[in-house]
């Protein structure tokens, strides 16, 4: 999507030890950026960061004090912060009948509060660094839904519209920070492959029949989603803020 140079730019990617976040980190590094991967999987994250030439820091996105420490660490390097990807997320399937309150709150804390905190705590450093671009990772389940995605859809729908409010606020305050959401469809990452592996065979077959098997272009690779995130980070999208970019192989067109 873009071959823009990110030389001189610093990026922070939450949930960057795996899947879509990792694929985006790899693209940004190839295109010249300094990348910080932030995750709770410390052993994996450190190993991955070493392999791809990123920096690693521990961050539970649901904890404001950990965001504050992360930003202090990055600010202390003296290279600013220009790109923020609020990507960390969890998916705990459940219908209105089966989803527990504890699951609902855990999902909201990580998938929605975590994005709010990332934007809130990082925005001052992004502004101080001359502005930048925020990519919030929502989902197709933030636009349409599935009976078994009650908590997940609540969180991702929140990310979709909250990103618009944040984009407007950042523009009003002339921060030079843009904020957009991306809406991936089914992507071959541990989140999807792992959760299907945990289902009973019949449940997995039913889930696949109403989801993955209905995608006109099939299952996405993480790098196909990363390409869209990198476009939103680049100046090629300089007039985009508050937008929602759907990368779903045609799923929501049907
Ligand atoms: N895979 C898909 O089909 C798909 C589709 C739409 C949206 N998404 C979204 O894309 C994002 C990335 O998912 P993925 O598919 O790459 O999954 P993944 O499981 O491969 O990666 C998610 C990462 O987030 C990290 N994480 C979880 N909780 C965290 C926390 N509290 N603090 C910090 N890090 C935490 C995990 O350790 C993991 O490294 C998620 O927000 C997900 O909801 C995924």
Which architecture does the CATH hierarchy give at level 2?
Answer: 3-Layer(aba) Sandwich
- The value of Rg in angstroms is 17 Å
* Average pLDDT rating: 97
What is the strand content? 5-15%
Which word captures the global form?
globular
The CATH H-level homologous superfamily: NAD(P)-binding Rossmann-like Domain
Number of strands: 7
End-to-end Cα distance, whole Å, is: 24 Å
The number of distinct structural domains comes to: 1
User: What compounds sit in this structure?
Assistant: nicotinamide-adenine-dinucleotide
Order of adjacent strands in the largest pleated sheet:
3-2-1-4-5-6-7
What would your notes on this structure say?
It is a single chain. This protein is of the alpha/beta class and 254 residues long. Helix content is 46%, strand content 15%. The protein has one domain (10-249): NAD(P)-binding Rossmann-like Domain (Rossmann fold, 3-Layer(aba) Sandwich), CATH 3.40.50.720. It is built from eight helices and seven strands; from the N terminus they run βαβαβαβαβαβαααβ. Strands 3-2-1-4-5-6-7 form a seven-stranded parallel beta sheet, sandwiched between helices. The two termini are 24 Å apart. The model has no long low-confidence stretch (mean pLDDT 97). Bound molecules: nicotinamide-adenine-dinucleotide (NAD). Nicotinamide-adenine-dinucleotide (NAD) binds at residues 14-15, 17-21, 39-41, 59-62, 87-91, 110, 137, 139, 184, 186-187, 189-192.
């Amino acid at each position: 999507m873009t071959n823009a140079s990110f030389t001189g730019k610093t990026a922070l990617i939450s949930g960057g030890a795996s899947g879509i976040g990792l694929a985006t980190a790899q693209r940004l590094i190839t295109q010249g950026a300094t990348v910080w991967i932030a995750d709770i999987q410390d052993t994996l994250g450190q190993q991955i960061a070493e392999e791809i030439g990123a920096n690693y820091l521990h961050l539970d996105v649901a904890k404001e004090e950990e965001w504050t420490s992360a930003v202090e660490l990055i600010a202390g390097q003296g290279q600013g912060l220009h790109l923020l990807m609020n990507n960390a997320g969890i998916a705990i399937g459940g219908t209105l009948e089966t989803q527990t309150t504890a699951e609902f709150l855990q999902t909201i804390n990580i998938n929605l509060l975590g994005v709010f905190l990332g934007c809130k705590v990082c925005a001052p450093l992004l502004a101080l660094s001359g502005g930048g671009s925020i990519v919030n990772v929502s989902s197709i389940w933030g636009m349409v839904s599935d009976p078994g995605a009650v908590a997940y859809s609540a969180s991702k729908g929140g990310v979709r519209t909250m990103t618009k409010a944040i984009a407007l606020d950042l523009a009003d305050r002339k921060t030079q920070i843009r904020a957009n959401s991306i809406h991936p469809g089914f992507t071959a990452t541990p989140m999807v492959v792992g959760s299907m592996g945990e289902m009973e065979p019949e449940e997995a077959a039913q889930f696949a029949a109403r989801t993955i098997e209905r995608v006109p272009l099939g299952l996405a690779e993480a790098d196909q989603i990363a390409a869209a995130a990198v476009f939103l980070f680049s100046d090629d999208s300089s007039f985009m803020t508050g937008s929602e970019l759907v990368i779903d192989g045609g799923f929501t067109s049907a």
